[in-house]
Amino acid sequence: MKHSLMxxxxxxxxxxxxxxxxxxxxTNHDVDSQSLLENEVAQEFSTSxxxxxxxxxxxxxxxxxxxVDDVRVGEVDITFNQPRSFAACFEYRIDGEEPTYxxxxxxxxxxxxxWSFICLGDAYDRDTYQMTLEANEYVEIRMVFxxxxxxxxxxxxxxxxxxxSSRMDCxxxxxxxxxxxxxxxxxxxxxxxxxxx
Length: 197
Fold this sequence. Notes:
With 197 residues, this protein is α+β, with helices and mostly antiparallel strands. The protein is built from 4 helices and 7 strands; from the N terminus they run αααβββββββα.
């Protein structure tokens, strides 16, 4: 319900935005597990004329950006930030899913579709928004429409921790990283699929 309401609110609020230039090619940027555990997002992405920035550059400039707050098995906590007053909209997709909406992206230079999004700024009465996104492998976030062209960045990938899938995943204390209370609980999960965490 909350997710649907957020989508509807975003759709209604964004209707008046004018989408300004963005490249239709999508580049995925991976984040390794160690960086995730340190709550960092990969740096030094490629940019283009229509996505002239990166999430990391935006953080450094105190522009619109997202922060990885926590990464767990199958989910990641993200905080979206807009430190200035104008609109900034972040699209997000899960495990490479197809576009969420049948309509075209609000940015007319984007021809790969429109995904779920969250908008921030004075018009939306919020400058920060926190959410937990569930995924099997990864979440991707981009910012390609909103009021400021200089801040736009392409898909940035944030991986989630995978769940235990073999008995080896339950050895040497690794079972604790998956949130199991003991090694036996982890092995039972791998063997039967029954999750009693």
